[in-house]
Amino acid sequence: NRARVDRLDSRLSYQTRLKARSLRKPEMVHHLKDIRRCDEHDDVDFRDENELKRFVRPGKWLSLNAGSVRLLRVNVVSTGIAIALLWGFVIWGLVKPRYMFSQVNEWKSWISYNFTWFYIGAFNAWIIFLLYVAFSKYGKIKLGRADEKPEFNNVSWFSMLFSCGIAVGVYTLGVAEPMSYYRGSYKLEGRGDTPTDDERAQQALLQTFYHWGLHAWAPYITVALGLGIVCYRWNMPLTMRSAFYPLIGNIIYGPVGDIIDAVSIACTTFGVCTSLGLGVDQIVAYYAALQDKSYTALERIDAQTATIIVMTLVANISVVLGLHKGIQVLSTITFSLGLFVLIATLFLDNTWFLLNSVVQSTGHYLQYVVQIGFRTDSFEQLGIEFGTNNLLWGSNKASKPDGVWSGPILDIMNNAAAQRTDYNSTTMPFGYSSTFPSGPAQMMDWWTIFYWGWWVSWAPFVGMFIARISRGRTIRQIVVGALVAPTLFSFLWLGVWGSLGIKMQRVAELVLGDGTPNTDGSSDCAAWGYVDRAPNSAAAIALANDGYYAVACRGYPMLDIMAPFKEVKEFLWGLLLIGITLYFITSSDSGSYVDDVISANGLANPPIGQKVFWCWTEGAVAIALLRGGYESGQNALGAVQAVSIVAGLPFTVSICFMCTSIWRALKIDSGDADICHANLFSTGTLDIFDLYKTGPADEPSTARYTFAERLANYAQSIFAPFVGIFKTCESLFGEGSVLAKLHSFVNFSFFVLWLVFLIVSGSDADYAWIGWTFYVFMALQISFIRGYVRTQHNIYGNMFEDFFGALVMYPNIVSQLHYQSKEPAPSNDVYRKPVTAA
């Protein structure tokens, strides 16, 4: 009995200590004064405008009424920047459509060719980070109070999650994408087994699963956690800048925060417009199939415009009704319709083949996800350097008069090839892909990086939406539920419909082909009896009359895979039409809701007029681009997709920093000693953007040094960084020490050599890269010194932050180190012990 009592006392003592720890306010947050932990304060009602204005700098908040009717509640700076970006792009597209479309597509290719490594590495890093956090001690942290229950049940939560995340894309690309890989001559070696045709079919599904699997959801959940922790545990407004508060503090209330919110709005709008373009194209096609009619190009664009107007009007109603009455109901209905069509097709066709394919393809994904997840097509893309579309940074020359981009290596090859006795200018030098057979160099540009950029451009929208509907759930529940569950459901969806497309294609080739093996995965539509994507030969027409098509030659394969089901097909087509229409609406109203909340700086109930404005802005952008594309004779939807990728690049960098912010937030919230008992730098690296006044939004800011002092020191750090390095090293190694002089000399040498080689690069461009190499070594030296300073002054940070800061803004870092050198070092190099009352 005594032992049992002791165990009970021990358990009670542990629970008491655990509760005390959860209620303890970490000491280090004296510089993060806006933290109001939900376990220590009542929830903040951000429907109260006065409460919200605590987080907005004076002069940025616009509150406009018409009598008793609220008209506007916006942060004028971030909203103005976002509107300028969006409508500036639209006007550019309408005034100079051909030039705009060619430029943005070139930008997209430039990003794909030069930043494949970054996109691939970042997405993998996010998955590893999320899984580590979910199954660490921080996985039990709840977005909200410890006793708070989830706001939505699991079915509604998953329905909204899936609806706003990927549903429109699955409808439009669920069959088309695997068919493109299967019969598009992509040669997907390196992503699985060496292909026979069966293995090529399996690789087609594997590549599709990869694009819609774990990697697709990683940016969404990262943003959701970044927002959810800060907004629902620390009672801060639900706006994108808040996610960076643990990392940059009060800087979020200045221009940096305004740019973060503005870019988030623009990314959301362009990302949603991409889906609107895909969705409206399918809606018009489904309607035409039900009516058994075809459209001319002008009739199609008119039908798409009318569809966007009607759908936007319906989305307005959903947005006005709000999250519970509108978006939740629509999401549940659309999810149920999609599930019904999926199960029906599973039963109507070869059920056992389809189940086998889903299980087998899931196994292939699990086996090859690491290999395919890190694949950058490095050797396939090497051929770009040897061609006339060389957009690789640093290896091409200026554009030639004929618009061809080429590099010096192509000129070298042409000159050498001309010396051959058997020289043929039309074939030599030989083609890269024919000499070294492999997949196309554009695979990443056309598919993977397009997807990654698209997912990132949707991250502000979907991530904020997931955060909003996930309150009351733990981090572990969100990561597992939002990362794993939608992935598995997507595999079922894509596996069933993709396999039906492959099966139908094989039926067509058995009847319309010549019986020889298809060894390269190519499509010969003319030989199969197809002209302009329609069956033309007697055999092809007879096969089509029974509902079977050469799917690789068709424009809307999702409709074709339902055709063999005879009378049932029109019923399924109708459900598909309703489903994709409602998914279109849920994507639009979810995007409008997020744009509205961000523009209102996190106000929970912005005026209805603002909601309507953002809903119509999305519709107007989509219409303007579609019409502009038609008038210019180019693909407007492709331009929207390209812009979403271009906008996604800076946000990819932002999400990487958001991971650091999340990590800091979790450690602060848990009261970890290494960060909660640490000191701070006496000045910030980004405070120049706030004119060196970085106090809370609602308090007058005080600075230790005058603006003139800071600005003069910043100028010195730009033009003579070695002075700041010398002062810093003197504080570390002693006044006048040899090490201080040595570091200053090394920094001076790197700095001067960097400038000298940039100057002489006018005679030979290669000298510039030697100069930038010296610059990198200068950044490495500065980051080493910053790490040394952090250790001596017990300042929390890591070497990656040090190096990135020194690399992209060395004057900021040098100035910060210079001022830190004036601070006395702590008497010990361990964590300061908390001061306790006597």
What is the strand content?
under 5%
Mean pLDDT reading: 85
Tally of alpha and pi helices: 31
Main sheet summary? 2 strands, antiparallel
The rough form would be described as globular
Q: Any idea what the radius of gyration is? A: 29 Å
Instruction: Quickly give the structural class.
Output: mainly alpha
Q: Quote the distance from N terminus to C terminus.
A: 39 Å
Residues in helices, as a percent range: 55-70%
Strand order across the largest sheet: 1-2
Unreliable spans: 1-28, 829-838
Say how many strands there are: 4
Ordered list of secondary-structure elements with their pairings:
Layout: H1 2-23, H2 49-52, E1 61-66, E2 69-75, H3 76-95, H4 97-134, H5 154-165, H6 167-173, H7 176-182, H8 197-212, H9 214-233, H10 245-248, H11 255-291, H12 297-321, H13 323-348, H14 351-373, H15 378-382, H16 408-417, H17 432-435, H18 443-469, H19 475-512, E3 530-531, E4 534-535, H20 538-545, H21 557-560, H22 568-599, H23 608-632, H24 636-670, H25 673-676, H26 707-719, H27 721-733, H28 738-760, H29 766-793, H30 799-808, H31 810-820
Helix pairs in contact: 3-4, 3-11, 3-23, 4-9, 4-18, 4-19, 4-24, 5-13, 5-18, 6-11, 7-8, 7-19, 8-14, 8-19, 9-18, 9-19, 9-24, 11-12, 11-18, 11-22, 11-23, 11-24, 12-13, 12-22, 12-23, 13-22, 14-19, 18-22, 18-24, 22-23, 23-24, 26-27, 26-31, 27-28, 27-29, 27-31, 28-29, 29-30, 29-31, 30-31
